[in-house]
């Protein structure tokens, strides 16, 4: 049994979507047990009448919500009644709880994970690794997507090792093709950081390094993991998301712009629906935080029940497939990585 | 009359597209004169039978092509018979030539512009500023998109001032809303570079500063100019382009995937064609290099005749509307900018 704590506040559709997602996850997988943090009364109301195995669900009353405006370090220290901080503290203190899912403020979650959960031995900095759909039906991971706006070549190598393991262990990708995000594909492109990181990635035997890549290839399906600093990774992921959303909006608008267009849209309904579904990020779970002692998943703020259930399943798979012990092993066996070995 | 030198080699469809674009530009605007650099014989063959004012077109024989694999500084010094280097040298030496258009290797063009053309007094570093279509029918500029992978707050302020002027003078945007690309919209987001740049942009009275923006809003139409370092800007522009191209490819594939879909597509032809046209970067000209003593436009490598003609028209507008004198004036009058005043 894998026990996961789910922060039920902080998302756009919280707590209803979180609670519904928890129920779906419990019903889909008999090996999962959940602890829900949030307003107990409200959660109980949302659970009323729902069918699920009650022995695998527990509620912890923590009715306060953390927002992006709060100063992360202050919140982690003082907002002990918030659903997120309570979940973080539970993950820290309760050995039986193995993973956490939250849709709440990213900065607070990151600070909480670093300060309270701590890094795996040898890991310099935890990193976010969301996964996006490619247009040939596969997926691509991006590590780091925002936890570290400043980077070193060593850190980029660690992101590559952790991300590559994640793509294998949790996303089922064999021998992931790892690319370094750069301003051109040729070796020697970019600033010193990227030139040095290129060398480290190329020399590392534990990686299937595919060289530099340009961001125009992000959805091409030519790569399984994109390695980058958190600033560029953030730009990459949000631009892809934003462009997809705006284009689909435009398309939907045009498809209903006239009687003729509506008729055309009707004929295309099946094929378009299939493709829209493929592009819906809710089907790909959340952004895993790699390098922390326990598994932490940050779900999209706008997640619906299906998105929350995917995050829970993702956390379960990471625990079941020994993601963290494997990360610890590879980081510490790889002679190229120079983790400072000190842990918070 | 504005005299512009056009490098006729180096693009995917060169020299045919370049030559056809030159003819179109001459026919569209009687106030333009062109110098074409490239293989003279081949250019003459392509011009044969075409209608245009021959007194406004001149050919300079320089049949060698520069590629992205060449070391920029070597090329600029030694490849004097290449169409690009000849064009750069002409722009440097011939006072009557006021601007240049090239589709060739970006790195070489940038090096040539910096080493041979030189910066405007007060400008620290030239920057690229491509313009992309937004989905509400407007445009948005991105400065810098790749000339400077490393930046300082002062440079970002200069990019903002130059880009804002460009959006006004060449793209016809009144009082451009300038945003700083960041990992979140709140003040205080990002690393020290972005925190410091935010302050400078906010304090600068010559700018209509709209605060931080996230890259998911790039196509929203909420901003007219996005200010960023060249690495993130490159990621931003190429991700947007790549995502649009991949999505449209997918759409086209689906629209012809079955008889029913084809019928639907037929009904939607008019509305989709209009939108595809709106998204076609060929209609928006090239990426201007801001801060050099003379106007340099880098067209997309895959430009067709229409793209080349747009670049020429863009160069013409920049010269006619005094872009460079205005940039020099604003950079040197703005007390916040600390250009080193030294020029190469």
Task: Briefly summarize what is shown.
The structure is a homodimer of 344-residue chains. Chain A has helices spanning 16-28, 40-47, 72-78, 83-93, 106-117, 153-169, 192-203, 230-255, 259-279, 305-320, 323-333; strands at 2-7, 32-38, 57-61, 97-102, 127-129, 131-133, 139-143, 177-181, 208-213, 225-227, 287-290, 295-298. In chain A, helix 1 packs across helix 10 (305-320).
Please name the two chains that share the biggest interface, counting residues whose Cβ lies under 8 Å from a Cβ on the partner chain: A-B, 56 and 56 residues
* Overall tally of domains of chain A: 2
Q: Strand share of the residues of chain A? A: 15-25%
Amino-to-carboxy terminus distance of chain A: 28 Å
Content-based structural category of chain A: alpha/beta
């Amino acid at each position: 049994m894998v026990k996961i704590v789910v922060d039920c506040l902080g998302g756009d559709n919280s707590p209803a979507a979180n609670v519904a997602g928890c129920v779906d996850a419990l019903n889909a997988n008999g090996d999962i047990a959940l602890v829900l943090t949030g307003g107990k009364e409200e959660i109980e109301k949302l659970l009323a009448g729902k069918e699920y195995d009650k022995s695998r669900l527990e509620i912890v009353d923590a009715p306060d919500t953390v927002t992006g405006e709060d100063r992360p370090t202050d919140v982690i220290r003082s907002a002990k009644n918030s659903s997120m901080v309570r979940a973080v503290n539970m993950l820290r203190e309760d050995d039986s709880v193995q993973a956490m899912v939250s849709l709440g403020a990213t900065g607070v979650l990151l600070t909480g994970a670093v300060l309270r959960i701590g890094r795996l031995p040898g890991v310099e900095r935890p990193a976010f690794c969301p996964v996006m759909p490619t247009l040939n039906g596969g997926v691509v991971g991006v590590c780091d997507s925002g936890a570290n706006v400043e980077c070193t070549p060593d850190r980029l190598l660690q992101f590559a090792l952790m991300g590559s393991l994640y793509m294998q262990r949790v996303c089922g990708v064999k021998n992931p093709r790892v690319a370094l995000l750069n301003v051109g594909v040729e070796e020697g492109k970019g600033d010193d950081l990227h030139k040095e990181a290129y060398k480290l990635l190329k020399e590392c035997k534990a990686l299937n390094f595919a060289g530099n890549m340009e961001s125009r290839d992000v959805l091409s399906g030519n790569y399984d993991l994109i390695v980058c600093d958190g600033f560029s990774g953030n730009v990459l992921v949000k631009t892809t998301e934003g462009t997809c959303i705006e284009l689909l909006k435009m398309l939907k608008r045009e498809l209903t712009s006239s009687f003729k267009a509506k008729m055309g849209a009707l004929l295309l309904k099946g094929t378009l629906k299939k493709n829209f579904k493929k592009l819906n990020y809710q089907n790909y779970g959340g952004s895993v935080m790699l390098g922390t002692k326990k598994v932490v998943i940050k779900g999209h703020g706008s997640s619906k029940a299906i998105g929350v259930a995917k995050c829970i399943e993702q956390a379960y798979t990471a625990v079941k497939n020994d993601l963290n012990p494997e990360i610890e092993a590879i980081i510490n066996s790889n002679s190229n990585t120079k983790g400072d070995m000190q842990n918070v």
